[in-house]
Write a structure and sequence with these properties.
The protein is of the alpha/beta class. 40% of the residues lie in helices and 20% in strands. Helix 1 crosses helix 10 and helix 5 crosses helix 10.
Length: 274
């Protein structure tokens, strides 16, 4: 039995048990994956308990604990170092906790699944929070022609661009958005959660091949609706990213990489009937 869990607050909505039990079935492994509500400020205790008093192999970390987890593990993989956040922890045989971040790789896998290459493309990344930061290195590793970051609070986009300091990466201001032409727009803001449209010009969506919202829902998200109404050719939500980041975590724990396609379809169907 491989014992896994996800720590977060809130956690009731988490689809991770559904996804990981589907992976386990696919791989013929016996996995128990639970969700655990952690009171704010107590992640350290929760990790100690899980890894001391169970034969826990690993866990996922979700909102709002990814930055906390970064400072609670014994070692950090490069993915976590770049993202400055941990969404996956594995306990090694020597008892050490290793922190990873699979969110950015999950995003890249999903863009490919949707048939959109990153190499040579002009990409606009909206947002400068944890999800945007985690996406930067995996996107840049796939050599876009240009990666622009825009954020409501411009100075945070500027800080990210200067911290990552890459020739293909630049921050764009509100004014510069008016003249921007891009192939892919990725929404890494949390605006869709509140149902808000993003205050960005419609012109930026025209000619855009894909408008991708990291958030997912049973219906098209407000960002997807905004993108469609403004002229983007295709829109997608982040359900595929969720399943893909989980697949990478599953591989870290078990050494086996599951296939995501059917799990995405099953999860989409389950969301529609929930
Ligand atoms: P953070 O809280 O770290 O960052 C939120 C970002 O959204 C900030 O850049 C903030 O701007 C911006 N923002 C919030 N509200 C608005 C608004 N009304 N208009 C414009 N910008 C706004 O969140 P995360 O980075 O952790 O998550 C971002 C999104 O990504 C969430 O929807 C989350 O669910 C999703 N996500 C999906 C994953 C998946 O697997 N599908 C994985 C990880 C995240 P400012 O700096 O100005 O405050």
């Amino acid at each position: 039995m491989i014992k896994l869990t996800v720590f977060g607050n809130p956690i009731a909505h988490s689809q991770s048990p559904f996804i990981h039990h589907a992976f386990a079935k696919q791989m013929d492994l016996v996995v128990e994956y639970r969700k655990c509500l952690v009171p704010l400020g107590t992640l350290s205790n929760a990790l100690t308990q899980f890894f001391q008093h169970s034969d826990g192999k690993g866990c996922n970390i979700t909102v709002p604990f990814k930055e906390d987890a970064f400072s609670l593990v014994d070692r950090l993989d490069d993915t976590a170092l770049h993202a400055k956040a941990v969404n996956t922890i594995k306990r090694n045989d020597d008892g050490q906790l290793i922190g990873y971040n699979t969110d950015g790789a999950g995003l890249v896998m999903d863009l490919k699944r949707l048939g959109h290459a990153i190499s040579g493309q002009r990409i606009l990344l909206l947002g400068a929070g944890g999800a945007a930061r985690g996406a930067l290195t995996p996107l840049l590793q796939h050599q876009p022609q240009q990666l622009y970051i825009h954020n409501r609070t411009y100075v945070k986009a500027e800080q990210l661009a200067s911290e990552f300091s890459h020739p293909q990466l630049s921050a764009v201001s509100d004014d510069a958005l008016n003249d921007l032409e891009v192939d892919i727009i990725i929404n890494a803001t949390s605006a869709s959660i509140s149902g808000a449209e993003l205050p960005i010009p419609a012109s930026v969506f025209r000619g855009c091949q894909l408008a991708y919202d990291m958030m997912y829902a049973e219906a098209p998200t407000p960002f997807m609706v905004q993108a469609k109404n403004s002229g983007a050719y295709n829109q997608a939500d982040g359900l595929g990213m969720l399943v893909a980041q989980a697949a990478y975590a599953f591989e870290i724990w078990t050494g086996k990489m599951p296939s995501t396609e059917n799990v995405i379809l099953d999860l989409r169907a389950a969301l529609a009937t929930s």
